[in-house]
């Protein structure tokens, strides 16, 4: 038999062409209660023609009639019932007496249909099946509502897809974030509903890296990790899962895909990885400082002495000059490594961040102002001072602005915007340079990772270290060809001493 489909209904059951049935019942008993349920129960109206109980005959005085029959006309014999009710066009015999059934077949005219007690057995069986089915449907609806409620409360995005990648169902998180009613998304490709946290598009087509494709081929659970850049240029991490759904025949009919945002977890893991790297770098730097720097000074000193000797010819002097420059480069690398692992001065004191930014802008303008670079400061009114070390903050700003300038080789504008963001003072340094790819965003804060030929990869990691040790945080937003924004979140300096004095005066 073919799989169930609603369009197959209507082949074997009543199709609406028959008029209503006026029923005359011959006999009483348990079958009468079943017959009354079939006549009056709304659950059967969809599958049976309209029926109405007209009268009852040949009742058994020892069997009480159901309440539904108390107002129904009752007759001693079926002949009297038929004479009194010419509208009857269906007689149901439930006496169990074969003689009465035989006489009914002889006496009934062609316009009146007959169902005897043997045929009613099948009708009773179908009635019981319908009752059981209704019970299970009610239970199934309850379970379905319960499961749907649970799925709707899950924060992850859940899609039930057919094998073409079209949506068969989804949870509330998805359609609410997409801003499209659930019914309108059914049957559409999944990428039309998938969104990032800020509502921007997750993908513009069925992504080849999505585990949906692997599950479609393997028939097993598959997963993958992907990165996305949101509408603000911030990097996000997602773990995608695909689960096969099998039908009763064991064939895969659907695939459930789940998007889990793991950005916060990945950030914690990367932070811990950086801390581990810092510890290793600290040990290496200490070793280098003790074991390499002293002989490096000796090599540099002798090279400088040789460079001053008048006995060297031009070719020898060039070679010694290379030695001097390389020793200086190595010494600079050692210094950078030691500065990177050396603890910062601590929380510091109250720093006028606007004044620091202006000093840095003035300093950078001296070197780059005539080369086509414009450094603009936009500060909100009445900004509080921040907790930190002024020299360290200057170092951070100089490094960030230098990176911005290097990203705009043809000149451009660097904007330093200062404003309150929640309870923090936020400094946003934005450029219109080449921007960064997802891979570069992912590795930007890794020590020793650099896209520059002469870079040591300690600039952004050192900035992050300084700001975080001052109680703040750093975020990086960028898109290829659309520039980069580095945001420093710093804690406002609190007037703790004045509070202490006021508390003391009030005692």
Give an account of the 3D structure.
The structure is a single chain. By secondary structure, this protein is α/β, with parallel strands linked by helices. It contains 15 helices and 17 strands. The strands form four sheets. A five-stranded parallel beta sheet has the order 3-2-1-4-5, sandwiched between helices. Strands 7-6-10-9-8 form a five-stranded antiparallel beta sheet, with helices on both faces. The radius of gyration is 42 Å and the shape is rod-shaped. The N and C termini lie far apart (91 Å). The C terminus is likely disordered.
Short description:
With 507 residues, the chain is an alpha/beta fold. It has helices at 30-40, 78-84, 98-107, 117-153, 172-178, 182-185, 211-218, 263-291, 293-308, 314-341, 353-368, 390-406, 438-443, 459-469, 496-505; strands at residues 21-26, 51-57, 74-75, 90-93, 113-115, 157-161, 167-170, 222-229, 235-246, 252-261, 349-351, 373-379, 386-388, 412-421, 424-430, 473-478, 484-490. The strands form four sheets. A five-stranded parallel sheet has the order 3-2-1-4-5, sandwiched between helices.
